[in-house]
Automatic annotation (TrEMBL):
Domain HTH asnC-type: 1-62
Keywords, ordered alphabetically: DNA-binding, Transcription, Transcription regulation
Matching Pfam families: AsnC_trans_reg (PF01037), HTH_24 (PF13412)
Keyword DNA-binding listed: yes
Protein name: Lrp/AsnC family transcriptional regulator
Length: 152
């Protein structure tokens, strides 16, 4: 990947709906080579897809929760079980493996506190093998972006 590919990626991260003509102008390429580069980035799996950025509150999910989970055991079967079950829970938008005291951090969206309680009691507790759950509710967002920093 070269600097031109990175320019293309950043431009598409800012506006994934821009036309190839507009993209080519933004990165100083002619349309055909620009489109060829985009198709190559898609084929290589660098560009994995396109999606809409949606306001969660307007959608009806105003509460964002970060949930940190520590497992009781770290055997291969326990870890695979937990990770497989996280893939199946719609409220879990992200699940990250962590270093440090906790094993995982989830980003969860729910409509209200009652839904969060139901999520913990009926979706997380049945997973089993969980030693502890630490919850932080988001009450404001200072910055949110999907645009990667420019490469140096």
């Amino acid at each position: 990947m070269d600097s031109k590919d990175r320019q293309i990626i950043r431009a598409l991260q800012c506006d994934g709906r821009m036309t190839n003509q507009d993209l080519a102008e933004a990165v100083n390429l002619s349309p055909s080579p620009c489109l060829r580069r985009v198709r190559n980035l898609e084929a290589q799996g660098v560009i994995q897809g396109y999606s809409a950025v949606v306001d969660a509150k307007s959608y009806g999910l105003p509460i964002t929760v970060f949930v940190r989970i520590k497992l009781e055991r770290h055997g291969e079967a326990d870890v695979k079980n937990f990770e497989r079950k996280m893939q199946l829970i719609d409220e879990v938008l992200e699940c990250h493996v962590l270093t440090g005291a906790m094993d995982y951090q989830l980003r969860v969206l729910v409509p209200d506190l009652e839904a969060y309680e139901e999520f913990i009691r009926n979706r997380i507790h049945p997973v089993g093998g969980i030693a502890s759950i630490d919850t932080s509710f988001v009450y404001g967002t200072v910055k949110r972006t999907a645009v990667f920093p420019a490469a140096r």
